[in-house]
Write a structure and sequence with these properties.
2 helices, elongated, alpha+beta, 3 strands
Length: 105
């Protein structure tokens, strides 16, 4: 994976792809993502009988999409749990503050 004139060359599953690298893009990030896709495709290739690179790519895409959806669901569950806990803490604090006598100066 090398960069020439704003084009980053990445290799996924034995094929080189030129990726336009805008000034805002991080080449290391692009390489990391490409390496991840390559790794997933090779895992699928070694674990299945899929003979075409298109089938391997589709199965890898489904696998990656599944990971994404599981992460999103996990994040949503975490946020929901934390929201519930924060509400309980806020309610407890409100009750505690309401039960204390008001201090006047």
């Amino acid at each position: 994976m090398e960069q020439e004139g704003g084009i980053l060359k990445i290799n996924i599953y034995g094929t080189e792809y030129p990726i336009r690298n805008d000034t805002d893009s991080d080449p290391e990030y692009i390489r990391t993502v490409a390496d991840y896709v390559d790794k997933k495709m090779r895992e699928i290739d070694s674990a299945t009988q899929a003979k075409s690179s298109l089938k391997v790519a589709i199965l890898a895409a489904l696998n990656i999409a599944d990971e994404l959806y599981q992460e999103r669901e996990s994040k949503e569950n975490f946020v929901s749990q934390m929201s519930g806990k924060l509400k309980n803490l806020s309610d407890s604090l409100d009750k505690q503050l309401a039960s204390e006598p008001e201090v006047t100066g």
